[in-house]
Amino acid sequence: MARAYFLRVVMMGLATAILCSACASTSAVPRPFPMPARAGTPQAGPESASTPAPAASSREPDWYALVGTALDLRGIRYRDGGTDPQGFDSSGFTQYVFARHGVALPRAVREQYRIGQDVRDDLAPGDLLFFTTAEPGASHVAISVGGDEFVHAPSSTGVVRVEHLSASYWAQRFLGARRVTPP
């Protein structure tokens, strides 16, 4: 089952790479995804650090908008313990993005891994992806963009960015996926 899943992810990644090869060479972002704010540029709109998080809602979030919010944060530096646009760690990033869309997430990666529905074989935009990196078990979290891509706050030397689930580093460390919806 894991092998079939891996092959499916690799094939989706290849198809995505072929379809998006023109974008990669021009650094263009496919529309209608919003363009990312540049690092160091003041954030406007719902991602602003001065804007309070919306209250938790019982309605289903707009997953497309949630992914757009995550993509808008590309370029923001990693900060251990970070939970806002001044810098994010992985779970601070997911917690911040989901809060902007009315979904409260726990703060820690391991706690986020315990909520929602297991969707390892049915990934969709907005799903939380979990990896085992620094220690056994869930130690890193990202947000599925769709297909083979995810957005995350990767490490102390990185910035929020998009990567591929089929990349050897991430594929070997993929632990599972959860779909979180309001109660």
Task: Give the H and E element order.
Answer: HHHEEHHEEEEEHE
Most strands sheet: 6 strands, antiparallel
User: What's the rounded overall pLDDT mean?
Assistant: 78
> What is the CATH C-level name?
Alpha Beta
Intertermini distance: 30 Å
CATH homologous superfamily? endopeptidase domain like (from Nostoc punctiforme)
- The low-pLDDT segments are 14-56
Our count of domains comes out at: 1
In the sheet with the most strands, the strands line up as 3-8-4-5-6-7
Radius of gyration, in angstroms, nearest whole number: 16 Å
- What CATH calls the topology is endopeptidase fold (from Nostoc punctiforme)
Architecture in CATH? Answer: Alpha-Beta Complex
Helical content class: 25-40%
The SS-based structural class is: alpha+beta
What portion of residues belong to β-strands?
15-25%
The rough form would be described as: globular
What is the strand tally?
8
| Separate helix tally | 6
Which characteristics define this entry?
183 residues, alpha+beta, endopeptidase fold (from Nostoc punctiforme), 6-stranded antiparallel β-sheet, two-stranded antiparallel ribbon, 8 strands, 30% helix, 17% strand, globular
What does this structure look like?
By secondary structure, the protein is an alpha+beta fold. It has one domain (2-179): Alpha-Beta Complex (endopeptidase fold (from Nostoc punctiforme)). 30% of the residues lie in helices and 17% in strands. It is built from 6 helices and 8 strands. α3 (63-72) crosses α4 (90-99). The longest helix is centred in the N-terminal third of the chain and has 18 residues, at 2-19. The protein is globular.
